[in-house]
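Question (not urgent): is this output format expected?
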Amino acid sequence: MSEKVVKLGIVGLNGMGGVHAQRILSGLVPRLKITALCDLNEKVLESYKEHKDVGLFTDSSEMIKSGIIDAVLIATPHFFHSVIGIEALQAGLHVLVEKPISVHKAEAEKLIAARQNDNQIFCGMFNLRAEPHYMKIHSMLENGELGKITRINWITTKWFRSEAYYSAVRWRATWKGEGGGVLVNQCTHQLDLWAWFFGMPKNVRANCYFGKYHDIEVEDEVTAFMEYDDGVTGVFITTTGEAPGTNRLEITGDRGKLIFENSELKFYRNEVETSKFSKTTNNAFEEPDCWDIVVPCEENNDQHKIILQNFTDSILDEKPLIAPGEEGIKAVELANAFLYSSLTNQTVEFPLDSKEFEKYFNKLVGNSDGFDKKKVRKDVNTSLKKSFNKL
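Got this back:
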């Protein structure tokens, strides 16, 4: 009796979809088998013709209706994530969507609502949830190791992108083609982790800068200030125009501080809670003693493979998902709210009114001319190898 497998179709092979395809075709994800591939560009498909047992399609709808797949991995330009995802879910297939799950919250709501039954697995490719340091941070927060959280600061600027990156394809960094810049593309990962770690804030006041470092019409630098109902404050800073970049997450609580930077997680553990020490000491300038601890974590791992394997195991063995697709709406909502706050010059309350933002967003898309005017370069090296490991 042969072992059960998940028959997978991938839509979009020119970027991460191609990386995932090579990983799976090489046998790195047990029980996950590619039986169909789809891309609009027939030249891209030609490189897969040696795989005789794989159906090749230029139309995602045809692939979804083909009957030769159980699940779909969507790695197209962002605007198609929800469109193809909704069609696949309505057809009863399992779905794994590359980040972001949608461009704006209203579309994400439609995507989430498209599941036909509870047995369908809907997953997001939020691979940093499988990174050992971030897993440890989540565990420490869940276990209350820091006590009451008081302040969060995340500088995530290790996302430098050159002009060549933006000019490699027509859709990138335009409202009409991509739906945003650094928020909807690069640091969607950190926004997902932010919501995973801390939940959603009460409000945000953000400043976004559009085409500050590049000849683009969308945001390439953002600073956002968030407030939570319990008094926690947070600052989130990101850009694609800074080199060398920084990735520093600092979480302060009553029992100390966590700092994650340069692949090292440090815990400055107060011997006495800050609030208790403040109220009981008779010293005007002394602060509580603390332990300086390097938190042991596993070595960096193949996060994408872990998500792919977890998706497979969830379908076949009912294992809990590491990155449930419906949770991807939180990163989308944060990104939308940051943009909306900056563009309207106001503090935005959560939950974001998805219909109100959709109307505003559609105006941005309608007024966009970056997609039509962009000059695409043919000489760009588009290898993704140096895009990974942004710790």
